[in-house]
Amino acid sequence: MPTALLFRDDAYLKSCEATIVAINERNGIILDRTVFYATGGGQPGDLGTITHSNGATTKIATTVYGEDKSDIVHVPLEGEALPKVGDTVTASIDWDIRLKRMRIHTALHVLTTVLPYPVTGGSIGDGEGRLDFDIPDAGQDKDEITAELMRRISLNADVTYRWIADEELEANPSLVKTMSVKPPMGTGRVRLVDIAGLDLQPCGGTHVKNTSEIGAVAVTAIEKKGKINRRVRITLV
After folding, report:
1. Do 61 and 127 belong together in one domain?
2. pTM higher than the cut 0.85
3. Do both 34 and 143 map to the same domain?
4. Under 8 Å between Cβ of 148 and 227
């Protein structure tokens, strides 16, 4: 059975009870359900702890998808004590780091509306992130972009989700802004992230509920990566 992805329905869940389904050959822990986001779409996997029924803990260094993409593997720090298959445990994420990533991820979605160009790459860090754009006209000003980005963030737009069929996404390719990262497809449906009045695009990541939760951000650099490619970096301030 695939791991139930609780973070996909509620990114604000900090912990959950779960059952150990398996421990793989690399000591990766697979649960029947999890609040841990697995690495994907430029967003790193969550870290945190798994607390055993006897009170012992296993520190989780990162989280990744298994080989068949249906299981989520919680990767422990080297040397950590492991729970046993069948045990009931509590899985808890490092919330402070997750929230920073959620704020940045949502801000990057808004940035794609300020710079409405093809996105060729991106990454999300702990309070900072970047997107690469193919921008035909160079000469972008980071202060002007910051001002417009903050203006849109200050609209206090709600961030909601809805699902569409794979076929519906294929019929509306304009929804996909990222050229280098394919939307999470293959299950028959795709999740759309809707920032009210600003943005609508497929994404499997975690986001805040309203742009007001992003807080203040700034464009820290615009780097030339090719003839028309520009890397735009932002940070929480």
Report:
1. no
2. yes
3. no
4. no
